[in-house]
Every structure is written in C-alpha cells, then in structure tokens.
Specification:
Helix content is 40%, strand content 17%. It has 238 residues and is of the alpha+beta class. It contains seven helices and eight strands; from the N terminus they run αβββαβαβαββαβαα.
Length: 238
C-alpha cells in the first residue's frame, strides 16, 4: 500500500510540474529577450476596404498577419492552408490577433470557395477576407517594406506581420548563428513565404510569440526595448 501511495504522489507531482516546465520553454527568458524588430513604419490601414459582412476590419490595435490573395485565390490554397494550420490554429486564442487577406472586389465568390476549403473543421472568426479596388490594394502593398512584388493578379505567397501601431515587424538580421560566426553578409526578413513550411513553422511562429511577449510585458510595465528601429535600415543601407 505504501509503495502504491508513493507512486500515486510521484505521478501527481509530474502532472503538476509538467505544464510549468512547458511554459518555461515556451516563453523566452527575460535576459535573452530581444523584441521583434520594426522594419517599417506607417503601414496604410484598411479604411477603403470592405469585409464580407460589412464589418469594419482595421489593422490598428491588432496584431495582424496581412496577406494578398488577388483575383485567383484558389491558386494560393496551399499557402493559405499552411498559414491556417501552422499559424492561425496556434495563435487564434491570443487577444487582438487576426489574419487579414486582401482581394479585389470582383473576387468575392472565389474567396468563399477558398474559405470553405480551409474552414472544414472549424470556424475562421479571426480570419478576415477584405476587398478593395486594385489601386487601393497597390497603395497598401507599397506602404510595406517588401522584397517580393505583387503578381499581375494582385497576389503573393508572402505575408507580413503588422503590430498594433501599424508598424511592420520582421528581422533586420536574419542570419543563422553559424552564418554570424562566419561573418557572412547581413540579410533581412521583411515577409514570410507561406509555401516554405519551415519558414512559417519556425521563424514566423517564433517571431509572433516574441511579439505577443512584448505586448504582455508592456501591459505589465516591464517592457524595456533595446531593439533597433526602422531608421537603422537607412543607416545600414547608406
């Protein structure tokens, strides 16, 4: 009986401390914490766009994954599914998180087909399709710091992280540790390729986690930013 009691106690202790250990690994330690860098400021908001249900969808005051699906959204179904499974499903419970996909007004019916495809097993309450005129879509895209261009269909496989203050987040130095050790040239990350599963699963998920940590610390009054800002881009490029 005594051995059985000890075994029961040990199991209870493991069950109690396992979630605690998981959380310690999930969130970055304070002394190792570097905020996700601002790579661009003053991203255009969505005043000239309309959603499916005429609800006002805005970027400000949200942590947004912003994408462009264009006139033929079903051609980007793989990218959308990767984003849904690797990012949306993971972060949909976080406060003020949303995914916003931009399309031309004439693509509403095709967007509904894509929505049906990616929402087979759950609703997409925090995933919005919004529609605008081609010139407004181009203006929004041009307000971003970009490496990839929009296709003639106004679409791209790449998505962008926009914070609550309409600032674009990313990495001013995206080198791996071994590349830094070899002193290889700096390269940056302004957007995330949804076709590249490793980039979405590892880099983007990690960057979002860091951004949520930043806002959590701000709410607690513990945030001390030491990250470089957008002006550092100009300093490096000049």
């Amino acid at each position: 009986m005594k051995k059985k009691s000890i075994k029961t106690i040990l199991i209870l202790v493991v069950l109690f401390f396992l979630p605690v250990v998981f959380l310690l690994f999930l969130y970055p330690a304070t002394h190792n914490y570097d905020p996700l860098e601002i790579v661009n400021e003053d991203v255009t908001d969505l005043q000239f766009f309309a959603s499916d249900n005429e609800e006002d969808i805005l970027l400000k005051e949200h942590i947004t994954i912003l994408g462009f699906l264009g006139n033929r959204p079903m051609e980007y179904a793989t990218a959308a599914l990767n984003l849904k499974e690797l990012v949306y499903d993971k972060f949909k419970g976080f406060k003020r998180f949303q995914i916003v996909m931009i399309l031309p007004k004439g693509a509403k019916e095709k967007a509904q087909a894509l929505k049906k495809e990616i929402s087979k097993y759950e609703d997409l309450r925090f995933w919005h399709f919004v529609y605008g005129e081609p010139n407004d879509i181009e203006t929004l895209f041009e307000s971003l710091k970009i490496e990839e261009q929009l296709s003639k269909e106004l679409a791209t496989d790449h998505v962008f992280i926009i914070d609550k203050e309409l600032k674009q987040r990313g990495r001013l130095d995206d080198r791996e540790d071994n590349e830094i050790e070899k002193e290889e040239p700096i390269y940056k990350l302004f957007s995330y390729d949804c076709i590249e599963v490793a980039e979405i699963k590892n880099k983007m998920s990690d960057d979002l986690r860091i951004l949520f940590t930043e806002y959590r610390q701000k709410r607690k009054g513990k945030f001390d930013s030491s990250s470089r800002r957008a002006e550092d881009l100009n300093a490096e490029e000049n």
